[in-house]
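Same chain as my last thread, 325 residues:
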Amino acid sequence: MFKAVSKKNIWMGKEVIKVILTRAIVLYLFLFCLSSLVVDYKKIRFQTRLREINATMPRNFGYLLDLAEGRATPDITYLKNYLVFYSRIVLYFPDQADAQAMLGFCFYQIGLEDKAAQYYQQAIKLAPDVFWFYHNLGVIYFKQSKLKEAGELFQKAVSLDPKNTTAFIHNSHVVYQTLLMSDPASDKELNQRLSDAYDHGYQLSILSFYYLRDFGRMGEMAQKALGKVQQNQDVFYFYAGMADYQKKEYEKAEKYFRKASQVNPNFSDALRYLALSLQFLERKEEAKRVFDQISLIKNPSRFSEQSLLPADKKFFFPYLNLKIF
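reply #2:
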């Protein structure tokens, strides 16, 4: 049988419940206030950091565009302002791949290539689908004769969908859009600049593999370029021919050199290697006619001043401006 519950016990039970509820309410209010303080602190910290970044923002970003386009020369007096600005963004917002890359660009311009490479490596980790990061890091390695790393970076760069890079730039409100706003024409030229850079990336990947004497990959990249790039077709036919020429596959080389000279009749180097291929194929009369054709060219192509150098010399270097974008 249940014992009767006294009024006193009922009263005590109610008091205990009141105490528990009161403490729960107090604890809830305390936690609410604490969370509000944390939120306010984060908000204040965020706003403080933005004010610091804005205080270091250069007045004009046109100088960086001029550097990228080769219209200006690097000057540490000007560049230190951009270094401070992008360093502050990276310090407070290290996940900003665009700021990491621009910091790399600035360090590259003042000659600190290893430092620049570190920031491009970080940018690639944060945004692995952006063409420019691979391309620019590849340029640094190419100049440092780290050809294996450079070739692989350029190969990766040209394999990426350019739409991802364009979208990234347009979504970069703080960094890249600020740059583009300083020169309205730059935004309109964005797609053309990217197209030119893909051409540049293909050529540098081909040259990296050429210097590594990896003629298989050199030829593979030249053939991919012929299928992807509309400009400089004569150059890529020439590179494809050079890959086969180095492998002593003269019949294949002859076809590519012939196509290069058809696209560009003044392409004296393509004609020269066409004649050499014909000689190796024991077609000496044809070879002689081609050599005679070279002597009649009045306006030779940009390759001609190096045409007498043997193939093992780095005769490709003068044809590419190793600028970084």
